[in-house]
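Consider the following assembly input.
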Amino acid sequence: MNRSRTFKTQIEITLPEWIGDFSHRHPPCPDDESKMRLTNELARCNVEHETGGPFGAIVFDAETGVPVSFGVNSVARLNNSVLHAEVMAIMLAQASVGHYSLCAARQPRLELFSSCEPCAMCLGAVLWSGIERIVCAASHADATALGFDEGPVTPQSWAYLAERGVEVVRGVDARGARQVMRLYRKSRGLIYDPRRA
Amino acid sequence: MNRSRTFKTQIEITLPEWIGDFSHRHPPCPDDESKMRLTNELARCNVEHETGGPFGAIVFDAETGVPVSFGVNSVARLNNSVLHAEVMAIMLAQASVGHYSLCAARQPRLELFSSCEPCAMCLGAVLWSGIERIVCAASHADATALGFDEGPVTPQSWAYLAERGVEVVRGVDARGARQVMRLYRKSRGLIYDPRRA
């Protein structure tokens, strides 16, 4: 009887290799619009390098406008359905600051920019991350039109964030994010769905 | 101007060291009750070893009753707010089978057991994982009574799972899971909250 089936005790999560170049060629971003342009550019790189879905997320130091972490959709690349852009950016930001809360004492004020409104999982991840501000570009409707499921996100979900003190800003450079989505469709990027895999 | 702030490009996610012992001392589990007893025991080990919150999750091969992956709450241990038990079990199962979908072709039928009903983030993670059956022990009310926030999970959220073909079974050995929660409270385990960190 096989009682000692081999199972994994660890995994490594990595950004695509091109992130090194990307991260060095950009100045700090002084305002929401420039932060989102950079976030959408990150999403575009993910499509152009064929390393994942058309989604990017960046945690910024709100004061300096310098990125603290980057995240790109890495579900298919790393065979891990949890690795949406927001989840990657949150985990890498926490690794960078060395704390599970992104609003713990003695940290700069941090904010999450995402090229698309968070799905149900990422909305929960935002809640638990301690991030106090999230800024989004494309809408759920945009993602759904592209063929991606967003899960059960309702007006109550957004209200829950607000009650917990998380500021949400939507629709910043949505046009830029939709352009990246169109590029993904045009390049026949994978619309992954666990039940059609 | 500090353009080249150091940021992380990778993180490693590991189970606690005691998982090696734990995984070898158990026979396959023939039914839901024995699977959940093992899951609750996993949660208890996490409390007793002081490696995280009182939550455990196991992905089982539904046919053989052999665990495919283990997950324990690792938020404080690894400084990563995403690492709830369910998320860890899902990511490690996907690493084990080498696919982002746990219902992809040529896999055994897999099911997720969790010592507590999933929070908003984990419910979304279940949706995207491709898992087709989730069995839970303690309820949201139990977790909330202990002081943990569960996020925006509504009847619509559960309905969404059902619509996507995910079977949900609740309340299996809830008593066992609540005992682990009481142990955690008694041992003054951390009720982490990003906004009180």
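Chain A has seven helices and six strands. Ask yourself how this observation constrains the way the partners meet.
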